[in-house]
Amino acid sequence: MPELPEVETVVKTLRPLLLDQKIKAVEIFHPKMVKPNVSIFTKSLVGKSIKAIERLGKFILFFLSDDLVVISHLRMEGKYLELKDENAPLSRFARMVFSLSDGRRIIYDDMRKFGTFELTTQSTYLQHQSLKGLGKEPLHDLDPNSIYVAFKKANRPIKSILLDQRILLGIGNIYADEILFAAKIHPLTIGKNITLDQTKAILKHAKRILHQAIANGGTRIRTYQSGQKIDGEFVTKIKVYGRDGKPCKECHHRLAKIMVGGRGTHFCPHCQHHPLLPMVIGVTGEIATGKSTLIQIGMQLGIPAIEADKFVHQFYQTKQAIGLIKKVFPESIVNGKIDRRNLLWAMVKDRRRYDLWIKILFPIIKQMIYQALIKCKAPMVLLEVPLLFQGKMDAFTDVILGVESPQALQRLRLQERNPENVEPLWILNERNLYRQFLPFIDQRLVNDSSIKIWKDRVEKTLKTYLAKTQSGINAGK
Ligand SMILES: [Zn+2]
Question: Is 95 a known active-site residue?
């Protein structure tokens, strides 16, 4: 969908093509997009000349002679094309043709037919149903206090507020994500919790990003095309939109994608702290590396911990889990209960069913973890998930610690801890892709000598993060 910068580009492209031109004829091939109706619309336009073309939000306004105004909205796929040659065939999705007195034709092309044309007058257009109640133009100098007051009244995520045209005008999905990233605000932050400083940051970055996009001709993502063939170069400057799974350009964390108000929303979990969560230190790594010791030391320091394995265990006690396991691993249900050892071997032996099970299990555990994190009142919490990245739970974390150990030591510890299941656990551990995600780890902690040295190392690390939380500075920033 063309957004504000693309519409601005269209307007700039149309001006030299149309200003002071007389409309000789209008042909409409899709009557539904025209208001009040084809006959009035056509009769009103013929013989008029085009005096000015302006943009209001994502609307294009054509000011004609005799006080007339045409309000055009491109919606999803609308575009204007110029045909210089009188005999040139119309484009494939031509919906309207404006013939000009100098022989050229301007085609309105719209594959999806969502575009609209409405007729109004210069004295009344601002009260027109499509334009009244529109918010402020972010490219103008705005009073942050009035926007701040408007945000305060909205009990919705800031991402949805930015997309709503009633406070700020013309910010679409791509720019909303980019603006929030630049302002370091999590998209789920509720309007009433946005501070005045954050409001100022939103306005500053909205103006900067939109200007930058206009200067570069917009984004031209998907099939968008402005009046002439101008390629949007802004797409190379995009920092978060559509980059989920890739490293953040400001820090090295993995960018996440969530749905907010039905719209795909991209953000950096590290640069944009989640408003409802404490500072979350993710702890991940392979089996028997020392994660549990780290958690214990954290608890001794007064840092609560949330452990994914405990939730998995808890979930396996439920009827829902038994029902789901019955579908994927029916052989592992013995006397109406899950036989854990049997399940372990079934997962090891059948990779296809294991992958399917992971796809079912992860979202459930992720939801349980999110609920637990929200309820957590402490300023800082440890979140231990062996498959943190594969489960996409790094989206909850501010900082990520990777716990590592030489393989021989891992095996030895596993042998001591769980002698009867060493083989299956080791095979499952090989499916932990921890090593592939090393670039996203903030700090790698190696547990390769005595327990005393390991404990000291962990304690020292956790204390530094604790000190940062206590002094009110978000760790890692
Ligand atoms: Zn970042």
Answer: no
